[in-house]
Write a structure and sequence with these properties.
There is one protein chain. With about 350 residues, the chain is of the alpha/beta class. The protein folds into two domains: about 120 residues, 3-Layer(aba) Sandwich (Rossmann fold), CATH 3.40.50.720; about 180 residues, 2-Layer Sandwich (Dihydrodipicolinate Reductase, domain 2), CATH 3.30.360. The protein contains twelve helices and 17 strands. Strands 16-15-14-13-7-12-11-8-17 form a nine-stranded mixed beta sheet. A six-stranded parallel beta sheet has the order 3-2-1-4-5-6, with helices on both faces. It has a two-stranded antiparallel sheet with strand order 9-10. The longest helix has 20 residues. The chain is globular, with a radius of gyration of 20 Å. The protein starts with a strand and ends with a helix.
Length: about 350
């Protein structure tokens, strides 16, 4: 495969801000087709990219012989159908998170991709923050010791503005749980391992957004127990007034173990806070330069805003995995694991009970 041809289904802000700039860094990689159900959105993307092949029907795009890979950036409810169609036509697939509205569909997507022998990737973009990559390295190396506690906190100030399809349960599945906490669930899995059981609570505090009904959660909290015995506390909110948004708002992960503690914040992309058992407290720990970009990525970490450009390494990982016929990181299996936790959190909030994930998965 000399030139890799990519089609993008869903041409909204995530595609324009993340996927297109990332693909532009990948040698011999071209976006050859665009798809969006909204003609105006599709035309805006066509004008920006110059891509000539466009359609409002994903079925017309995924069957094309000149398309090798598909990126899915649509409302969540559409992910499984588009992914299944692309996989059935032998296309490699990168899909935005959450993969589906239920874990069973996400697992089916992963299994279908495995059977077809295509590469599959879940867009857990924050895995590519250099500081998170370095933290994972330190934990795997044993610097933490036995994990005791994991906690994450994501607080933003989104007020009551209109979120479009993201504020409709029938299209999004969940609100803050799938939108933001799904990333931190994936952090928990990659740092500590699988969650064994949990109890959760969700709230919809703003029932009207931008003059339109909102029936999704805008705050969620999970108390978890990992298979390793470690504890977990995860909280995420769209309604932390005065906290700002994106990397300017609070986005932190702390992990404590028998040998020490580490703190990650997205806004400090090249630095952690670290402390050791019996030590004086947390101190800055710089991320070595070899972690500033994903292995093999041609991205210049000194070009542009590093709090934005780290996202471009996601496209590099996808393309490189295709070319080298190896598994993507993170895969659909990672997305399905996070979805199982989300399903359990919804069930727990509804029943006000602890949920055992091993039984829920059965």
């Amino acid at each position: 495969m000399n030139s890799l041809h990519v089609a993008i289904v869903g041409c909204g802000s995530i595609t324009l801000q993340n996927h297109l700039p990332g693909l532009a860094l990948c040698p011999d990689t071209r976006v050859v087709a665009l798809c969006d159900a909204q003609p105006a959105t599709l035309e805006r993307a066509r004008l920006q990219t110059g891509v000539r092949i466009t359609s409002t029907r994903y079925e017309d795009i995924v069957r094309r012989d000149d398309v090798h890979a598909v990126i899915i950036a649509t409302p969540n409810v559409l992910h499984p159908a588009i992914a299944r169609a692309a996989i059935a036509h032998g296309k490699h697939v990168l899909c935005e998170k959450p993969l589906a509205l239920q874990a069973a569909d996400a697992r089916a997507m992963a299994d279908a991709a495995d059977r077809a022998g295509v590469r599959h990737m879940t867009a857990f973009t924050y895995r590519f923050v250099p500081a998170m990559r370095y933290l994972r390295h330190l934990v795997q190396r044993g610097d933490l010791g036995q994990p005791y506690h994991y906690r994450s906190c994501r607080l933003q100030d989104w007020g009551d503005r209109d979120l479009g399809w993201r504020q409709q349960t029938r299209l999004a599945g969940t609100g803050e749980l799938g939108d933001m906490l799904s990333h931190r669930i994936d952090f928990a899995h990659t740092l500590v391992g699988p969650i064994r059981r949990l109890v959760a609570h969700t709230k919809t505090l703003v029932p009207i957004r931008g003059g339109h009904p909102n029936d999704t959660d805008d705050w969620v909290a999970i108390l978890a127990e990992f298979a390793s015995g470690a504890s977990g506390v995860l909280e995420s909110s769209k309604l932390a007034a005065g906290r700002n948004e994106s990397w300017r708002s609070l986005d932190s992960v702390e992990i404590n173990g028998s040998q020490g503690s580490f703190v990650f914040t997205t806004s400090q992309w090249n630095r952690l806070q670290a402390g050791h058992a019996g030590g004086p407290g947390l101190e800055p720990l710089d991320v070595p330069r070899e972690f500033w970009t994903w292995p093999g990525s041609p991205r210049d970490p000194g070009a542009g805003d590093p709090l934005v450009t780290f996202r471009y390494d996601q496209a590099w990982e996808f393309v490189d995995a295709i070319r080298n016929q190896r598994p993507c990181t993170p895969s659909f299996h990672d997305g399905a694991a996070a979805q199982a936790v989300m399903d359990a959190a919804v069930q727990s909030s509804q029943t006000r009970q602890w949920i055992d994930l091993s039984r829920a998965a059965g």
